[in-house]
Fold this protein.
Amino acid sequence: MSGRQGAKPVIHAFAGGKLDRRAELRQTRAPRAVVKLAGDRAVVTGQEEGVLKLALFSEEAGPEAVHLGVEEDGTQVMADRIREEPLPEGCQLIDLRSLAMQGLIGTAELSLLAQARSLLFWHERHGFCANCGARTTLMDAGYRRDCASCKAQHFPRTDPVVIMTVSGPEGVLLGRGHGFLPRVYSALAGFMEPGESIEEAALREIFEETGIKALEVRYHSSQPWPFPSSLMIGCLARCEGGCIRIDESELEDARWFARSELVAMLAGTHEGGLKVPRPAAIAYHLIKAAVEEM
Amino acid sequence: MSGRQGAKPVIHAFAGGKLDRRAELRQTRAPRAVVKLAGDRAVVTGQEEGVLKLALFSEEAGPEAVHLGVEEDGTQVMADRIREEPLPEGCQLIDLRSLAMQGLIGTAELSLLAQARSLLFWHERHGFCANCGARTTLMDAGYRRDCASCKAQHFPRTDPVVIMTVSGPEGVLLGRGHGFLPRVYSALAGFMEPGESIEEAALREIFEETGIKALEVRYHSSQPWPFPSSLMIGCLARCEGGCIRIDESELEDARWFARSELVAMLAGTHEGGLKVPRPAAIAYHLIKAAVEEM
């Protein structure tokens, strides 16, 4: 399902959900299974051959529970926040990043958690009407909040982010943000702004962060990133090289990487210990695709 | 700048801005030009060879003005709402859809208006903190609103929408929404939801609206759509055909169109008077691309 003809399709972590979202069932409350989260952490259980499963609670969902979709057998799956209650025996809370990065849970379950986490976070932070300040009420099983005072309707947000490698005569341009783990370099990225296309946003971000004027931007693939509700839009950019001028408010470092260095970084065998993000992040796949074109 | 190799790059209406956004200048207030809008309508002036120009006001920008970017000569361009004041002689208010659809203004100016319209609308509807209900204050020259009470920071939203044609053995699948102009058929479209990739969102929307299970989705191009702040993500989907089952809450009609019919619709010569959207809409270009692949 990648946009690149001939390229191997990639289903990134947090995508690949198997539930039928069935928007028309959001009004009903069929027999249900409820997944529970506390912020970034999900309640998981057991360990069969090293893989954790989502804990599915069969109790009545609370008033702030959100509809996720319907399983093949017709079970409505919802998500709710866990509050004070002790966890059932054999259950534990694990954060979504660990579940993804360490491959602790299946693709479809991780995607379901991405959907749940983004929706629940949005409700936590949107209890009031941005238009008039009054309290709002959860509607449509979690896909809307209504203001009884000014009648405004509010919808969950998804924030598009462009993320891209830049290939030039000197190699592939990667950067290090201030919060990165030690020795990790990754694709450049930034939130899209109003009034620009994906390709324009990529060119703007590359120039803002590194001073490099790229010439061409191609879409590669996309990934939902539920921290809290980004859509990572992965692109491959090309440039004719140039002098890197780092925006120090955004980046700690940025430089060109030669093919041999990138191959080692992707394999985890770089002599200097430099790394790229893990395969659960779209950046890994963008860097891999850029290397394949070198 | 399209994602499709070999395809002719398309800069869609509302993209193609020429201003340097220069985020780092958002704190300064250099000599400036202010464009003014009243809701969907912009203040435009004169008519040289049939093309209107944006009216640029040189006065001090108001406290709710937003930074758009910097022109080549260093002029900071901002946008502000027009309120009660009478328009200067030779100026008029024209809505953005007309400016785009009728080609009344240049590409770069239209893109600047898209940016202005999305930002100004967001501020109009976000005077209060969604987290605690207190009043918020415009910061960073319009790219943030801060809550002094709970310290939450709020950023302008951009809502990703997938829009796609579906090609199958029986032709190209197009639909008619309830609010469409008479006899217009267009690409299917819908807002993305949390926890899905672009390709998954396209497949979901196609199935929800028409009951058709598409197999393949390829990214084509994107367009900022400032009504009020969408990002149209254009894709081409393929399917093996199937029975159309319309979601009547979303669509008035959907059907397969043969190549000859689409060619006539694109040219404005359809015998039955059927139409596709104008070239200012990404849908026109998606339909054209789908026809070229038939």
